[in-house]
Amino acid sequence: MIDIAHLDLSIAGTPILRDVSLKLGQGRILGLAGESGSGKSMTALSILRLLPPSARLSGHVHLDGQDLTTLSEQQMCSVRGRQIGMIFQEPMTALNPVQSIGDQVAETLVIHGAARRGEARRIAVERLERVGLSPDHIPPDRFPHELSGGQRQRVCIALAIALRPRVLIADEPTTALDVTTQERILGLIRGLVDEQNMACLFITHDLAVLAELADDIAVMKAGEVVEAGATLDVLRHRRHPYTRALFEASRHQPVRVPAPPAAAPLLRVERVVRDYPLPRQRLFGARPGFRAVDGVSFDLHRGESLGLVGESGCGKSTLTRAILGLEPIQGGAIRLGGEKITPQMPPALRRRMQVVFQDPYGSFNPRHSAARLIAEPFHLGGRPADLDLRVAEALESVGLRPTDADKYPHEFSGGQRQRLAIARALITRPDLIVLDEAVSALDVRVRAQILDLLADLQGRLGLTYLFISHDLTVVRAVTDRVLVMKAGQIVEAGTTAAVFAAPSHPYTRTLLDAAPMLPEAMA
Amino acid sequence: MFGYVAHRLISLALSLLAASIVVFAVIEVIPGDPASYMLGLNASDETVAALRETLGLSGGPIARYLHWLGGMLTGDFGTSYTYRVPVAQLVGDRLWVSLPLAVYALALSTLIALPIGALAAARRGRAVDYGIMGLTQIGVAVPNFWFAMLLVIAFSITWKVFPPGGFPGWDAGFLPGLRALTLPAVALALPQASILARVMRSALIETLHQDFIRTARAKGLSEGQAIRRHGMRNAMIPVLTIVGLQFSFLLAGTIIIEKVFFLPGLGLLIFQGITQRDLIVVESVVMLLVFAVILVTFMVDLAYALVDPRLRR
């Protein structure tokens, strides 16, 4: 149905795609897997010819016998949206914030002259209802900011399928979503593909998602398709070494030393409450409050690794900020080694815990050298005399070279930047390191390396980790105990092995069921 | 939406009250007594005291502040020390020149700036863009009175299309009045349009990099359609902010242009008021301008809410 043959793409002289050939069949989902920069998204954008002006494209894209690469820009405009629909990764920003969702779906119909405005509005309501947004609950005159991430992605799907296109391209459509939302969106896409007999190109970095969803898989590396075939066949035999590497990294389990027997707790969180004031409902009314963290208690012992899982909005980030002493709490107490944590705590206490965030690039000042970035925590209590030595030591302990100290953040790769962030956390020799989605933005192979590094550091330095993540596979691989958080409360706590083997709370079961896992049988 | 408007209105009232206190306090501490200025150096203390009494300058500051504020609320702005006419009348006459001039200049500036800013954004990095950016660079750099003189040389002396200065009054008819205001309005509008065009261009370019523009293109919109249907409205917030600031400036900051074209506007009135220690005029005109600026800010806030549904709360 859609036949991509020998696609070569270069942008401003840099080769991006090399000899990419793919076939999409009616009613089938082709999963396109690979790490960031492998050319997955560029393949999709090449099909639609939505490329920057400096791009040079050669090869053929046949859609029902018509070669799209020979069409004019004007002709391509009538192909986009009518014959090929596309959805993108970021549902939060993929919709126009100042236009109602009904109008945005209707626009697809209007722009292709398929319906007049009134008629288009009526069809838009129908399409929104098909993707699960019934007008009784989510009226079409809502604006994107009034919807959740999952609901916005449904709107994006509705406008992509409004004209019942022959082909649907989905570029990481569920990567930014929670696991339970992801499961429902994947079900919706599968249902639409079957019902409308579309061909679907589904791009993701997550092999586990493809194992559950795709009929066929193509694996891309550095702009080339290295392996393609039926899903089960590709995942079971893994003929290409790169496929094998990806597969193994996805299920990587670092070697960890068992946590020492519990002594006095290092971090003690007791009945912590965090309220946010909301805007006034009436002009002179009292401000209503929102309880983001509701009576949370737990202990974290020295040398232990504790996981905190939950979906977006469950309060885990709020709790993290309170533990780091960045925001005041309205009830309960947080103690580190017996000392109370508050936003006013002394620097000597503050330097005993450090944090590593998700986005290593966003958490570094791009104009500072690596040495200066790593030495940053020393503003808490002064620079030590052996600063250069300490910086070199921190760099070496995370697997970088001491000579990297003079480089700037943009000179490092994503994985190296996360190593830098870990070095920055290590330099004050803290007791507790909070890892806030610290490996979530990394490619699977890099993620595996960072997880190994964290396990190694924990063994050598006796570190204690609080590991916050939405990724259950990772939490399972690297924590001793796990807490499951929902609506501001801890609904389940226990050893990681026990919680994953036999979850007792229904919410934990829902989470585990929704999380895509690579089938055990394939190992 | 109602809550948003109510919130803005309360903030408007409080700003006005705060401004009135500041204006009054500043006038209080300015050296120079209008009564002794008016009577000259040889006046006796008794005469000065008597005049102070008639001018309403005696009494404690709080009593005088309340008296002044009460007067303003009922439309009584006091009487000018030098002209001996009600300030309301003085200001009213001048406002009929300054307000139309400001609106005229702002309309010109917006009509010029938005299309060329959008064009530069759509053709970013190409010759048209460089051309427009070069011109606006000149527009920002060159002072408006110099433009004004060029315009007079070109359109009043070489080609006698517009009068070189003066204002016949609206009694002389709408068109003569408009003709008299055209050259000053153009001189005022050119630098403002240059700034606004640059703001429009950068706001629109920023918007065009957003994900929803890519979504629109994937729907089948051409680049031009995507800019018109999705880019423009999202680029309006920074543009509205600048338009609001420019209107406030145009209302009061036109003194040099008023001088060049001999226009009896508010700028000149306030300048004379200061030099002649006619403090009641200064006080009232400044308060009026503050009111205008706050009102414009309020209207810009309302416009934000119309443009962006996320603010309607």
Q: Care to count the β-strands of chain A?
A: 20
Give the CA-based shape of chain B.
globular
Pair with the biggest interface = A-B, 35 and 26 residues
Tell me the CATH architecture of the largest domain in chain B: Orthogonal Bundle
Helix content of chain A: 25-40%
Using the CA coordinates, give the radius of gyration of chain A.
Answer: 25 Å
Beta-strand segment tally of chain B: 0
Count, helices of chain B: 13
Largest sheet of chain B: none
Oligomerization state:
heterodimer
Compile the SSE list and pairings.
The complex is a heterodimer of chains A (523) and B (313).
Chain A: E1 2-11, E2 14-24, E3 29-33, H1 40-48, E4 55-63, E5 66-67, H2 73-79, E6 84-87, H3 101-111, H4 117-130, H5 149-160, E7 167-171, H6 179-196, E8 199-204, H7 207-213, E9 216-221, E10 224-230, H8 231-237, H9 241-250, E11 265-277, E12 289-301, E13 305-309, H10 316-323, E14 331-336, E15 339-340, H11 347-350, E16 353-356, H12 370-374, H13 387-397, H14 414-426, E17 432-436, H15 444-461, E18 464-469, H16 472-478, E19 481-486, E20 489-495, H17 496-501, H18 506-514
Parallel strand pairs in A: 3-8, 3-9, 6-7, 7-8, 13-18, 13-19, 16-17, 17-18
Antiparallel strand pairs in A: 1-2, 1-4, 4-5, 9-10, 11-12, 11-14, 14-15, 19-20
Helix pairs in contact in A: 3-4, 3-5, 4-5, 5-6, 6-18, 9-15, 13-14
Chain B: H1 2-29, H2 34-39, H3 45-55, H4 61-73, H5 87-122, H6 127-141, H7 144-158, H8 174-208, H9 211-219, H10 223-252, H11 255-261, H12 266-275, H13 279-307
Helix pairs in contact in B: 1-13, 5-6, 5-8, 5-10, 6-8, 7-8, 7-11, 8-10, 9-10, 10-13, 11-12, 12-13
